[in-house]
Every structure is written in structure tokens, then in C-alpha cells.
Write a structure and sequence with these properties.
The structure is a single chain. By secondary structure, the protein is of the alpha+beta class. It has helices at 10-17, 65-78, 83-98, 124-138, and strands spanning 30-36, 41-50, 53-62. Strands 1-2-3 form a 3-stranded antiparallel beta sheet. β2 and β3 (53-62) form a beta hairpin. α3 (83-98) runs antiparallel to α4. The structure holds zinc ion.
């Protein structure tokens, strides 16, 4: 597995070791479970929506370094963004990790660290699992809180 060493950049290793936004937050409004059978990654993503604004993203689960780092980096990147901006960022991120040509204004920030997976097609699902799960949560994951609006 030494070829993967190039992929495990510092940012990935750091986020995999100490993931941000890890845990089940109070007051989440929706959640979804994701599973990547190719690698065995499992993730539950919790989203706290306030209208169209993503107030908080958090996750639980167990998976490889890439899936954990991706969930952690995604959570950091999406807090405070609108649902529309999150979808746009996912589309750019997806392009980047699958090797599709990027839009000129695609600014991925720290997510750039994960774009090395484009050389390893089997790992693309690890990098996108949390994102697909987040989309599922926003599109109608079960309500985990019954707080009045
Ligand atoms: Zn994985």
C-alpha cells in the first residue's frame, strides 16, 4: 500500500487523527447514514439547518483516513454556508477528485488536499462518501430533533 503514502498528505493525516466536528450535536435537524462497501467506510452526517443556511455539520462513524479526513474537512468548509453554496462546492469538489476539468473560479481551500485521490479511482468513493451522505440528509434525512422552529 506504499502508493497511498503520496496521497496521505499532512492535512489528511492530521484531520484523520483528530477529526473536527466529530460527534452527535444537540439540535441537529436532519441526518443520514452513508456506507462505502468498497472500503468499509461508514459515516453518519448530522446537519443543523436554519432555513437555507447550514448552521452546523457534524459526523460520526469509522472509516479509512481519507473518508474521515474528508468528512472533517467538509464539516469545516460547510458551516455557515447556504444549501445552494454547499451543493456548488460539492460539485466542484466532485470534479476535482474525479479528474474532471475545473471551473476557473473553483476555490477548494483545504479540500484541495483530497484532490490527489483522482490518481486512485478506488478511493474516490472514500473522499465523496460524507458529501453524498450530507446531500441525502439535506434532501430528507430523518428529523433527529423536534425543537420548535
Ligand atoms: Zn475508505
Amino acid at each position: 500500500m506504499s502508493e497511498l503514502r503520496d496521497l496521505y498528505q499532512e492535512v489528511i493525516l492530521e484531520h484523520a487523527k483528530r477529526p473536527r466536528h466529530f460527534g452527535r450535536p444537540e439540535g441537529a435537524t436532519c441526518k443520514a447514514d452513508g456506507h462505502n462497501p468498497l472500503c468499509g467506510d461508514r459515516v453518519t452526517v448530522y446537519v443543523t439547518l436554519d432555513g437555507d443556511t447550514i448552521r452546523d455539520v457534524a459526523f460520526e462513524g469509522a472509516g479509512c483516513a481519507i473518508s474521515t479526513a474528508s468528512a472533517s474537512l467538509m464539516s469545516e468548509a460547510l458551516c455557515g454556508k447556504s444549501v445552494q453554496d454547499a451543493a456548488r462546492l460539492f460539485s466542484r469538489f466532485h470534479d476535482a477528485v474525479t479528474g474532471a476539468p475545473l471551473l476557473e473560479d473553483a476555490d477548494l481551500g483545504k479540500l484541495e488536499a483530497l484532490t490527489g485521490v483522482k490518481e486512485f479511482p478506488a478511493r474516490v468513493k472514500c473522499a465523496t462518501l460524507a458529501w453524498h451522505t450530507l446531500q441525502a440528509a439535506i434532501r430528507g434525512g430523518e428529523l433527529v430533533s423536534t425543537e420548535a422552529p
